[in-house]
């Protein structure tokens, strides 16, 4: 995704001192920005690296719901990372920050891809990749969770991993005021919640957590890692997709 000059300068400066790779599986990119939290905020998975496991159910999971919520805030300045691509009305420019939920996925057959509103990659519940995005909630004004990804629980054995992220599509970034959180719900199990308690507001993509298929159970891990764009996030976690300013180009 496009970034302003301040963000690019911050990335270049940070890269001078970050020579090691991310270490996320077969990744080829540098690590994102992370700071260990103090463990006093959030619920369940409150610190980076915390994980919870839901064991395999006898008849597979009915469904897996990955919900995202955030607080709407007024924009600090009129502008858009995508103003060169989209023309907006004056009223639109004064709306709150637009946050989107998305995920990268890898199936056990090797297929990899993304599900997100930008680029209209909404997924499919009944067919591959068995992940469907609910809608594009642009304001954060709705009650409860604003957007969610619904995973076909009967097809979970065919899914290898899911990387869950939120990204600022429009408006000035201010993660501390937005306060995103993710809740993973499985029928019959207590919810797993990740609330980032550290922020890096010049970077527009936040990887909140991941879900791995462990013997057809679910391992949820808190990552809370920030990146300047989708491509850097992808490389750090080793999915190998091609991106063009936040849009996925070629499916694998």
What would you note in describing this structure?
The chain contains 4 helices and 14 strands. With about 250 residues, it is mostly beta strands. A hairpin with a 2-residue loop joins strand 11 (about 205-215) and strand 12. It starts with a helix and ends with a strand. The relative contact order is 0.25. The model is unreliable at about 1-20, about 30-45, about 75-95 and about 135-145 (pLDDT under 50).
Work out the number of β strands: 14
N-to-C SSE series?
HEEHEEEEEEHEEEEHEE
The poorly predicted ranges are 1-19, 32-43, 75-94, 136-144
In DSSP terms (H or I, runs of 4 or more residues), the helix count works out at: 4
Shape: globular
Instruction: State the distance separating the first and last CA atoms.
Output: 20 Å
Main sheet summary = 6 strands, antiparallel
Count of distinct structural domains: 1
| Rg computed from alpha carbons, rounded to a whole number of angstroms | 17 Å
Structural class by helix and strand composition? mainly beta
CATH fold node name:
Lipoxygenase-1
Q: Averaging pLDDT over every residue, what do you get?
A: 75
Question: Which range does the strand content fall in?
Answer: 25-35%
For CATH, the homologous superfamily is named as sav2460 like domains
The CATH architecture term is Sandwich
CATH class: Mainly Beta
**Helical residue percent band:** 10-25%
In spatial order, strands of the major sheet run 1-12-11-8-3-4
């Amino acid at each position: 995704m496009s970034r302003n000059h301040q963000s690019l300068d911050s990335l270049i400066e940070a890269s001078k001192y970050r020579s090691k790779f991310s270490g996320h599986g077969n990744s080829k990119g540098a690590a994102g920005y992370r700071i260990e939290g103090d463990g006093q905020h959030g619920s369940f998975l409150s610190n980076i690296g915390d994980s919870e496991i839901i064991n395999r159910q006898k008849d597979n999971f009915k469904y897996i719901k990955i919900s995202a919520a955030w607080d709407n805030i007024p924009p600090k300045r009129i502008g858009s990372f995508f103003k060169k691509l989209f023309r907006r009305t004056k009223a639109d420019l004064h709306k709150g920050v637009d946050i989107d939920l998305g995920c990268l996925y890898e199936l056990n057959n090797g297929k990899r891809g993304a599900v997100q509103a930008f680029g209209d990659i909404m997924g499919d519940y009944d067919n591959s990749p068995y992940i469907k995005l609910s809608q594009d909630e642009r304001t954060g004004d709705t009650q409860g969770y604003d957007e969610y990804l619904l995973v076909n629980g009967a097809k979970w054995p065919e899914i290898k991993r899911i990387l869950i992220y939120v990204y600022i599509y429009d408006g000035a970034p201010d993660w501390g005021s937005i306060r995103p959180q993710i809740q993973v719900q499985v029928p019959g199990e207590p919810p797993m919640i990740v609330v980032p308690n550290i922020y890096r507001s010049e970077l527009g993509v936040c990887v909140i957590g991941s879900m791995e298929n462990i013997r057809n159970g679910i391992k949820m891990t808190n990552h809370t890692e920030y990146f300047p764009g989708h491509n850097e996030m992808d490389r750090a976690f080793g999915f190998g997709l091609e991106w063009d300013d936040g849009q996925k180009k070629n499916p694998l």
